């Protein structure tokens, strides 16, 4: 058996220290971390638990289920079992923690769950600390970058298998099912996480020909039919893959928690000239953006430059979607979630910084297909280092 | 191309009528439906939209993205495009709707999202209508039962393929990846929905031998290692499947929105006597429960009877988990979500009613394996009709 990877003590200690500095700035007594993503980030476990992090001193992990697994997975010292969440305020008091002003992740905690906490902590006030944690998580450690690289490499391997699978008259969903099995057996945990409310997302999209222009609610440049209006109405559908139609494959891969994101294009036969030219343009835009990205550059400068380049290529009307389905970003941060900082969009002045990890995805959508590229990067002191390496030209089968 | 299935007008009309009766009882002016599940149930689309349902009169679907798709998918008459959510109160006012007391799904809407609504609706009060909608969704129409039957049949087909895939020394995740590809290519939309906060769930569990006794936070009788503590830490892991170890497979299948749930057990070689006896006991308990379930029977009576039967079989200590990992239910409702009403647990007096759909899952966990059965049912006037039909004896390969 392959052992599971547990987060080292040094990682968790550094993350908690960074967060305690923020708690100090916010004049909070501490924070109660509940949602699985931040809970894993700050404790090393995503079992059902509440992590109290005081402004200074040692955190306390209170586990409802499974205590045994949380003890094995978390490098924290103070771990206790709790039978009922109502016990939490009493436990904190007994241990001498002050908890008058508490940070909570109010961007994901549902209203009625918040109500429950206001009842059990009836002498405390709550402050939203979601954004502070998003900002801390934006800068990845060498350990995290190594994990992200593993997800990227697995995704590259599966892209390399596509030519062996692709055949005329197979449905998009057949190809998607093979691709997904490929990433699952390499360790994809099965849940790709988005922080935004109501943004259902599975693992990725396979869309062929005109499916690439089918709009959807999902906040990405390319939609697709999906299988049903009932859930996940985007990505692969029942459409049959035909000769001389581009097959656009955009997938995530989450191994040991870290999310890779990569897009490649395949075709059985030939690619129409306008699509081929747009693909060349997307690679050229990517190269220009990679060249301009350095620590200190504001996110919006990258987005606005991408619009200029699409305009210069005479493809502005197809860039990042068509008509009302166009999205207004050129890239997004990646990590434990798919929708992290930095966001490369107009109005986002956040300066890029060493250790940020993100995907850039210059794409064009036409009535007969979606085309473009997407890669995952880490920002080094001198510019972006690409972590995804599948062949970028359109693969002809 | 296979056309996607759109919800008929008659279905949506009946659902809205039932909900309007509830709004009337609650003395609400109307409700704003936002979360994808109820939105799909009441409008036929899960595009990004807000559905206002007045206490009486016609509902209004306000679509942010994709308007084009929402118009195609929803049978509702009044559908308008909105560029910004801030426009919603003004649109309602213009159209003459009263919206002083509004129902919202406060069990899933995050706190900061609720804050946003309190700002744009600054003269309205909000009431949680989540439970009312759960109760309405509990009783399925003939149309919904037909869709659920299709999900169940697809799941049966994939279980029938398992003997061809199963081989010694393959990992749990390899088998899981094949199983998942099998349900995906039959139309599994890719998102299995749970309403409960923080309950990550993918599609199902493959656990072999001792993995069946590995605890996890997930609220089910059987856990499993999973691939990583970082996300979805249950289900298939890196464990190798060995001869004479039970392979327990519990999967959902969601086609056109409706969730089937089924568990079967396989083995290469022989099954240890204590596991074989427990499997016979689980089938016997299932038969007894099916026999007692009728419209009018309270949920808890079914659960309490299952405890008696496990006790009589001398297997109480292994029933529905071991030690602190034991769960306190014997079945759960199924539909657009995996955690619907009815809940077969102590203290739940909800009487069963014709048209309810649910899974029963009498299971036993031992140090060397998890065993048992699970099927999906619809309650008819004279008792449960089973919708899942894979072979229930342990399949020897």
UniProtKB/TrEMBL annotation, chains A, B:
<protein>
    <submittedName>
        <fullName>Aminopeptidase P family protein</fullName>
    </submittedName>
</protein>
<feature type="domain" description="Peptidase M24">
    <location>
        <begin position="147"/>
        <end position="379"/>
    </location>
</feature>
<dbReference type="InterPro" id="IPR000587">
    <property type="entry name" value="Creatinase_N"/>
</dbReference>
<keyword id="KW-0645">Protease</keyword>
<dbReference type="InterPro" id="IPR036005">
    <property type="entry name" value="Creatinase/aminopeptidase-like"/>
</dbReference>
<keyword id="KW-0031">Aminopeptidase</keyword>
<dbReference type="InterPro" id="IPR050659">
    <property type="entry name" value="Peptidase_M24B"/>
</dbReference>
<feature type="domain" description="Creatinase N-terminal">
    <location>
        <begin position="15"/>
        <end position="139"/>
    </location>
</feature>
<dbReference type="InterPro" id="IPR000994">
    <property type="entry name" value="Pept_M24"/>
</dbReference>
<dbReference type="GO" id="GO:0004177">
    <property type="term" value="F:aminopeptidase activity"/>
</dbReference>
<dbReference type="Pfam" id="PF00557">
    <property type="entry name" value="Peptidase_M24"/>
</dbReference>
<dbReference type="InterPro" id="IPR029149">
    <property type="entry name" value="Creatin/AminoP/Spt16_N"/>
</dbReference>
<keyword id="KW-0378">Hydrolase</keyword>
<dbReference type="Pfam" id="PF01321">
    <property type="entry name" value="Creatinase_N"/>
</dbReference>
């Amino acid at each position: 058996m392959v052992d599971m990877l547990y987060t080292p003590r040094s990682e968790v200690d550094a993350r908690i220290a960074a967060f305690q500095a923020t708690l100090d700035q916010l004049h909070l007594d501490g924070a109660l971390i509940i949602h699985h993503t931040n809970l894993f980030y700050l404790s090393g476990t995503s079992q059902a638990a509440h992590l109290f992090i005081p402004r200074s001193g040692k955190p306390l992990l209170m586990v409802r289920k499974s205590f045994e697994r949380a003890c094995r997975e978390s490098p924290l010292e103070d771990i206790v079992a709790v039978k009922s969440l109502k016990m939490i305020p009493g436990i904190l008091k007994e241990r001498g923690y002050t908890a008058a002003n508490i940070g909570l992740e109010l961007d994901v905690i549902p209203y009625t769950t918040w109500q429950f906490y206001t009842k059990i902590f009836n002498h405390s006030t709550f402050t939203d600390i979601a954004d502070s944690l998003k900002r801390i998580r934006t800068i990845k450690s060498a350990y995290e970058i190594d994990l992200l690289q593993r997800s990227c490499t697995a995704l590259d391997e599966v892209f390399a298998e596509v030519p062996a699978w692709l055949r005329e008259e197979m449905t998009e969903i057949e190809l998607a099912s093979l691709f997904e099995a490929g990433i699952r057996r390499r360790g994809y945990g099965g849940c790709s996480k988005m922080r935004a409310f109501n943004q259902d997302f599975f693992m990725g999209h396979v869309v062929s020909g005109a499916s690439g222009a089918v709009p959807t609610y999902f906040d990405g440049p390319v939609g697709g039919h999906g299988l049903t209006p009932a859930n996940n109405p985007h990505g692969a559908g029942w459409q049959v893959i035909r000769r001389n139609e581009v097959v656009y494959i955009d997938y995530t891969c989450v191994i040991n928690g870290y999310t890779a994101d990569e897009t490649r294009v395949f075709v059985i036969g030939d690619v129409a000239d306008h699509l081929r030219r747009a693909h060349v343009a997307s690679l050229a835009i990517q190269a220009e953006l990679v060249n301009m990205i350095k620590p200190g550059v504001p996110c919006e400068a990258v987005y606005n430059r991408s619009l200029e380049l699409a305009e210069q290529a005479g493809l502005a009307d197809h860039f990042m979607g068509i008509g009302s389905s166009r999205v207004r970003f050129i890239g997004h941060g990646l990590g434990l979630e798919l929708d992290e900082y930095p966001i490369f969009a107009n109005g986002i002045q956040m300066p890029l910084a060493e250790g940020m990890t993100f995907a850039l995805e210059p794409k064009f959508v036409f009535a007969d297909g979606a085309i473009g590229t997407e890669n995952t990067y880490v920002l080094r002191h001198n510019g972006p280092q690409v972590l995804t390496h599948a062949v970028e030209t359109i693969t002809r089968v």
